[in-house]
Amino acid sequence: MSEVDLSGEKGWQPFDAPALVGSSLRFVSGDPEGDRFRVSYYRKPDSALVARIWFGPETEGPPEHAHGGSMAAVLDEVLGLAAWSAGYAIVVANLNINFRCLLPIMQVVQVDTEIVSVDGRKVLVRGKIWDGQEKVYTEADCLCIEIQAV
Ligand SMILES: CCCCC/C=C\C/C=C\C/C=C\C/C=C\CCCC(=O)SCCNC(=O)CCNC(=O)[C@H](O)C(C)(C)COP(=O)(O)OP(=O)(O)OC[C@H]1O[C@@H](n2cnc3c(N)ncnc32)[C@H](O)[C@@H]1OP(=O)(O)O
């Protein structure tokens, strides 16, 4: 597979978000040279977690477009890690996704995240997969619940 450019914007800091959880977290980010997903994580100047993600040929659902489950997996990981990056040790309890447009595979897209609220153990994270310009493919609200350290 040809080189994939996952570089970030000026002012973004590369950030190894999966390392917050540990080596178990491989489903989305565990095969950086593979044909499924390739991911790079960054923190924006306001510290929000952002990811650049390439959906490879193995994520195909509709011809030449990403399987909805592959987008759900990406949102589960990135929005969950947004909470971890903000200091909350969580699991995802509810992930509510709206698929807005078919997402072409074999291109790099962006996942933006925002911590919307924290209420006791409940951390609500909102995010979207988009082209980084204007086109939104998928939006999601992710309810995370803080767990005890294991
Ligand atoms: C540097 C060292 C790091 C070491 C790390 C070590 C370990 C890491 C461990 C785990 C890492 C996990 C994930 C990593 C992060 C991202 C990766 C991707 C994310 C995932 O892939 S992660 C897998 C999928 N995930 C699950 O497999 C969850 C299965 N599930 C459960 O494990 C329980 O279900 C749990 C814990 C969620 C809650 O159980 P619980 O008994 O602790 O708490 P309880 O039920 O009392 O809920 C408390 C309050 O949340 C409200 N609430 C709960 N669930 C709700 C729902 N669905 N909708 C609306 N409200 C809900 C209640 O209504 C109540 O609200 P209120 O307080 O207001 O009454």
How would the blueprint of this fold be written?
Layout: E1 13-14, E2 37-43, E3 49-55, H1 68-85, E4 90-99, E5 108-119, E6 122-130, E7 136-146
Antiparallel strand pairs: 1-2, 2-3, 3-5, 4-7, 5-6, 6-7
This protein binds ligand 3IX.
Ligand 3IX binds at residues 20-22, 25, 76-77, 80-81, 84, 91-94, 120-122, 143, 145, 147, 150.
Keywords: Apoptosis, Cell membrane, Cell projection, Cytoplasm, Fatty acid metabolism, Hydrolase, Lipid metabolism, Membrane, Transit peptide
GO molecular function: thiolester hydrolase activity
EC number: 3.1.2.2
List keywords for this structure.
cytoplasm, 150 residues, thiolester hydrolase activity, transit peptide, 39% strand, fatty acid metabolism, seven-stranded antiparallel β-sheet, single chain, EC 3.1.2.2
Short synopsis of the structure:
This protein has one helix at 68-85; strands spanning 13-14, 37-43, 49-55, 90-99, 108-119, 122-130, 136-146. With 150 residues, the protein is mostly beta strands. A hairpin with a 5-residue loop joins strand 6 and strand 7.
Q: Can you offer a commentary on this structure?
A:
The protein is mainly β. It has a single domain, classed as Thiol Ester Dehydrase, Chain A, CATH 3.10.129. Helices cover 12% and strands 39% of the residues. Strands 1-2-3-5-6-7-4 form a 7-stranded antiparallel β-sheet, covered by helices on one side. The protein is globular. The model has no long low-confidence stretch (mean pLDDT 96). The chain binds ligand 3IX.
